[in-house]
Amino acid sequence: MEQQQHVSKLFVCTAVDCKDDIEEKFERSYTNLQQQIAGLSDKEMHDMLSQFVCKDKQHDEISIGFLYIMLTDPGMAPKTYRDITLVSRDGMNVIVSNLTLLVAEKYSKLTEVARRQLIWVLREFVKHQVLSVENVIWNCLRQAGGGDASHRNLFLVESLLDIFIEYRAWLEANPFLVQSTVYSYVRLIEDHANPALISLRQKEVKFTISLIRERFHDIIPLGRDFVRLLQNVARIPEFEQLWRDILYNPKSLHPTFNGIWQLLQIRTSRRFLQCRLLPEMERKLHFLASSVKFGNQKRYQDWFQDKYFATPESHSLRSDLIRFIINVIHPTNDMLCSDIIPRWAIIGWLISSCTNPIASANAKLSLFYDWLFFDPAKDNIMNIEPGILVMYHSIRNHPFVSSTLLDFLCRITKNFYVKHEDKIRMGVYNSLKLILDKQVIPNLQPLFESPKLDRELRNLIRENFREFVSSFPNLSQPIYPTPHPIQSQIFKKDFQMMHGENYDIAGTVFSTNSGSVVSLVDEDNKTAMPPSEREIEGIFRDQDVESLGRNNKNDENTDDDDDLPLSKVRLKEKPKVELAEAIAESFETFITKRNSFTFEAFLKDFRSLPASAFEEFQLSYVISNTVLILRETLPQQNIFSESKTDEKFLAKSISYPIYGLFRFLYENDEKSKKPFQTMLSEICERIPETGFLFLYFMKIHCKLQTRKNSQLSYQFKTTVYRQICDAADDKIGNCLVRDLDLLEKENTTIYLWLLPDIYREFKSIATNNTELLRITLRCIDAKNVRDIIYSVAQGKLTIFKQDGLIDCIRESLDYETYEQFCLWQLVQAHDVPLKTIQDLLPELEAANHPEALSHFLLLLKNEEPTNEIIRLMLSREAKSRGDPFVTSALRFWCQRYEEKLSEIIASLLTSKYPSSSPNKRKRPSKGSSVASSTPSADQVLNHLEHYRRSCRHGTGTGLYVHDMMQRALQSAYSHSNESTKKQFSDLFALAAEDETTAVGRRGGSGRGRKQPVSKKDANNHSAGNKKNSEIIKTIYSSDENSSEEDWSKQKTTQAAKKRKKVINESD
Question: How many structural domains are present in the chain?
């Protein structure tokens, strides 16, 4: 039965789909019509239906039933069309309106037959010029999605094109449909570059070009976004010629057309931007921008990515989405003030997730397109707001996004249209000036002068925006005098969303007349008023939106809620609630006096109360007012002590009500009742600074108490901090990193002051913690490094421990250069032995890890060569030009430990050829294993060869004349294939010939006595020595002076004499 309920000729339904109102209406109308006309002749059917259609409801059902038949039964469609023309008494208005609804809402669920019949019905409607059929056509154009080269989409695109070509006169009679058609097909042509679609593309180009040229007076209102689309198809010959006419012969297109600048000054209507998004996609986008909280958007973005960005062609869709978001989705003040994901965050995701470079450039152009032609008199600030916010909010944690966007803005300003560069530069200037005037961001200094931008980009910014970087106003001075608390909250809240902070500020769902969730804000009135000086500082310090309620307390007109800060409005709206007798008096006192003593007194009464003592609304009343007071009583600036030693300043800095909570927890650390835990959780959620303020409190409290009573030692109570972490429903490690990250952003000096205490009290969590280490490295300068090293030397601070340090260093290899140099200074201060981190040597790359290699080389200079170190070094990959790191270390050791180094390398090389060992080959024990970083024979020979090439003026070449090295080279030569011998011929030539020959005669064995040398052999031996000497001479003198030749000859002669003496003694 369930399967039968889901069977439909019109819609594709799955077993889990439920029919909605539209499906039910079509199915019901079809069933009723079938019951009424079953078994009747045509004449009887016409007579009966003519009587039925006199009633409006039955007329609608009969019309929809006939439409259902036309869409599902191709054989009956012509007859049904004739029947409906006879029966309909409203000019088919019901059919057209329901067909429009069907296409807009249910096109994706139509069966294949229904889609094809839809085109047939449209053709018939256009042929007979049915009224309002253009609405159906326009919705069908919307369903022809961009970035979609599927067969189903191409069928719709080509079918509509055929209708337009066949009924061109009907099309040209509707200017809006002409504009929508041209705009849509110019956009779709971009996606049809595949050679398999050449015939379709040619048909589209021919039709579109002819329509543009013949109806250019209808095309002009398309405005600047039409120019943007024409840029993407400019290489097609027909469009190239159109571009030439637009640029150089505009009057040939239309007498009133003055050139491209006329188009660029016209803002494109939202209807055309909307027509390039599927209705379903538009609904999803509106849901994301109006109902999803900031921080919870990832799963929605992943779904959107899988649904619409799964194919290579889909990258072009990002530009359409960005233009739609910027020009169509304009949130109200309520939405901006809520914790809904802001527009800049969605656009940042669309740009940063794009992997196609061309699509990425087009997306950036879409973001800044309105900047280039911005006129404050007629353009809307909401069209330029996302561009500045996505750069401003990304500069701290995602500097790459901000730098690429800034670079693009600088270059597009100069190169977009060289002829009118001055006008485009003025448009960008107007944009930035209005952004500052309306306080979208407090100032441009954190963005334009960020140290995270490279020098070249900062110079480019100064060159292009010198008006905004020459002098920045001091934040301590009033920048803009006119205060407007509500609007400043908007931008402050938008700024804080970057950090994922959620606030309990209700958002408002808004809708258009059509019912889709969207806000179309008045273009002229949607402007932002600048905030006051104190609010600007609050924005820049990234505090909670509700802190603005502390401004202008004495000057507010409480009669008008629009003039009140939001927090005061909420207090005003809350009615007085009767509370339990145990806390009623203390809570009322706390609300009245708002100090830490009254708060502690209230907490003593409140802590012991069970959940049964409160109704839900009572507990909510207590908690919400408590949180609001704690937030409001925090100072807006100078939240920390001005002095680290003066007791007066220290005591004052922890005298606010929130520190009363900390003092209460510090002195009463036993388990609390559920209401108290609920309140603590809400405080942690609504006041993100709670964690680091508690750490600061413990530092000051212990310091002051120890001064009062030096005989007692007051320590941090990590158990209390664990309570706060439990209240935040997170692990203590995650909370500690998050809190310290916020503290560093708030006040770097206090962060560094607390650092020794953090590493001491949270030793197991903080030591070797890469996240905490990265926070420290990003904020320290040379003086801070010095102070940290002092603390390490005095034993007050331990950042690293040997176990796990190598993982810490491995993760730091991607840090900035300065951060890595600071890291190595701290590692060196901890006297970390080389053996702890030496396993990292084979992983370091000369091109990517210069900082680590530099410090490793300095460490190696203080060590003697060992088997383990040499094994790890020679395991490094040797490039075509060698490894300067290995060469430098070997050259240094050769000056002091030449013989030892030669023996170690020779032993390592000999071990690669077991058969040459003088001992019997031993079977490895079961427990032994070869290290993963053991170098191969080729690696050892490679490093020896590059080392040989690095020798100059005879220095360092003594490494090869030691007996063990000679035997190792001879053994390597005898066991190598021809290609290896050829590759390392110069290196093998350093081994004496008699030894090589002997090895060849004895099959690689080094055991036994040598045979007596006959006279003939002696002569040959002498000639061989002479030849070998010449080879060595050639090797070392190929690119050096004659002094090397003398040195080589001397060394070779000494080696030959030594071997001759051994032979004579043997004989």
Answer: 5
Q: Are residues 453 and 312 in the same domain?
A: yes
The whole-number pLDDT of residue 57 equals 67
DSSP-derived 3-state class of residue 913: coil
Which positions ≥6 away from 799 have C-beta within 8 Å? 759, 766, 767, 768, 773, 776, 788, 792, 826, 830
Other residues' Cβ atoms within 10 Å of the Cβ of residue 105: 17
CA dihedral 99, 104, 109, 110 (to 10 degrees): 30
Given a contact cutoff of 8 angstroms between Cβ atoms, the answer to whether 852 and 881 are in contact is no
When computed from its CA atoms, the radius of gyration of the chain, rounded to whole angstroms, is 40
- Residue 149 sits in the same domain as residue 43: no
**CA nearest neighbour of 792 among 767, 770, 809:** 767
Looking at 111, 135, 157, the residue that finishes a domain is 111
Whole-angstrom CA distances from 269 to 277, 285, 655, 732 are: 14, 19, 57, 52
The two most distant CA atoms of the chain are separated, in Å, by: 135
Are 297 and 435 in a shared domain? yes
Same structural domain, 347 and 426 = yes
Q: Are residues 590 and 629 in the same domain?
A: yes
User: Nearest Cα to 674, choosing from 628, 584, 743, 607?
Assistant: 607
Neighbouring CB atoms inside 10 A of 125's CB total 22
* pLDDT number for residue 1026: 43
Tokens 């889909």 label which residue?
314
Q: How far apart are the first and last CA of the chain?
A: 108
Task: Mark which of 111, 126, 158 sits at the end of a domain.
Answer: 111
From 484, 495, 520, select the one nearest 339 (Cα to Cα).
495
Give the integer Cα–Cα distance in Å for 53 and 974.
105
pTM, full prediction: 0.48
Same domain, 303 and 258: no
**14 within a domain of the structure (yes/no):** yes
Q: Kindly list the distances between the CA atom of residue 252 and the CA atoms of 247, 248, 264, 847, in Å, as whole numbers in the listed order.
A: 11, 10, 19, 58
Mean pLDDT by 10 residues, the chain (1067 residues): 55 71 81 76 74 67 83 86 78 85 86 89 88 89 88 91 91 91 92 88 92 91 92 91 91 89 90 90 89 87 87 87 91 82 90 88 92 89 91 87 91 88 90 88 85 86 81 34 30 32 30 31 34 32 34 37 39 57 85 87 85 81 87 80 83 87 82 82 87 88 80 72 86 90 89 90 89 90 91 90 88 88 90 87 86 88 88 82 85 86 87 59 40 74 84 70 86 87 84 45 36 42 44 39 40 44 41
Q: Would residue 357 count as lying in a domain?
A: yes
Long-range contacts of 738-741 (CB under 8 A, 24+ apart): 738/691, 739/691, 739/692, 739/695, 740/692, 740/695, 740/772, 740/775, 741/775
The DSSP-derived string for 496-525 is HGGGT------------TTS-S-----TTT
Kindly state whether residues 255 and 160 are assigned to the same domain: yes
Range of the domain at 177: 144-276
CA-closest candidate to residue 825, choices 882, 864, 866, 784: 784
Task: For residues 909 and 954, state if they share a domain.
Answer: yes
